[in-house]
Amino acid sequence: MDIVVTDAAGKLVSGLDRKDFSLLDDNRAQPILSFKAVDGVNPAAPTEVILLIDTVNTGIGQLDRIREGIGKFLRQNGGRLANPTSLFWFTDAGVKVQPRPSMDGNALADMVRQIPPGVHTIPQAAGSEALLERLQLSVRTLSLITENELKKPGRKLLIWTGPGWPLLAREAAVYSARGHQLNFDSILSLSSGLRQARIEICSPGAGSEFYVKDFLKGVKTAREAGSGNLALQVLSVQTGGITLDPGNGSRLVDEIGECAADAGAFYTLSFDPPKAEHQDEYHDLKVVIDRPALKARTRTGYYDQP
């Protein structure tokens, strides 16, 4: 488990010891088997930052602001990045990936400027079938990214810019029991894959977690599994990341920087999960810091197996 600790002002906190942490699995204290504090950039195993531009779920005007904001972020400090950074752009044809991570922000900013505007084959404003298609394509793309990152060691910070994919209204009318099972299968696969790949998702411009608070609780059965449980904002919170309001777009550079700061100081611990009574048994996770006003952000749960 990778853990980010912040103070009351939201600033990262370093210098904590193992004794400052308590781990609860379904509200039961668990012994911490290993503990490591990483202060700032670890030259041996740095956190990789992935900047993803979502052209599928973003309008043209908003996409222009996102490209401009990412370019400004990358050119800060003379283009010297603190962590190796990759550039992904998500289109209707799939996700395109820059060949290798770079710490040259100026070169990456030049690549952002050269990315052509997305041509949407899936209409932005359409009926439920088109919305479902965008949702499925987005979740499938995140799954492919996760599968690819599973092959790489180390921690990754996926900054997915844009509003995120659509959620479906009147879900009971859209989904059959089979549809709910497919949702649950996606939730299970993503939850396990993101954990194993050590991916934290951060979503500037997707809106605060207040708007998805009804979906943040872990899904235990297929009957509970709706499209809201697969929302970008929900996955951000559940992986220990943050989701931020877009506002008028003027704070985008600062919000990307706030997300990227999570690649700095963090903590890693492990524990031995209790034996599951049945397959895909969901467990809530909580890390408590034994110091006033400090908050831990980490994965909110996992699926245990017998």
3D architecture notes:
The structure is a single chain. This protein has 306 residues and is an alpha/beta fold. The chain folds into two domains: 2-39 and 265-304; 48-261, von Willebrand factor, type A domain (Rossmann fold, 3-Layer(aba) Sandwich). It is 29% helix and 26% strand. The chain has helices at residues 60-75, 105-114, 128-149, 171-174, 177-197, 232-238, 252-260; strands at residues 2-6, 21-25, 28-30, 34-38, 48-54, 80-91, 94-97, 102-104, 156-161, 199-204, 243-244, 266-270, 281-289, 295-297, 301-304. The strands form three sheets. Strands 5, 6, 7, 8, 9, 10 and 11 form a seven-stranded mixed β-sheet that branches. Helix 1 links the parallel strand 5 and strand 6 (80-91). The longest helix has 22 residues, at 128-149. It is globular. It starts with a strand and ends with a strand. The model has no long low-confidence stretch (mean pLDDT 90).
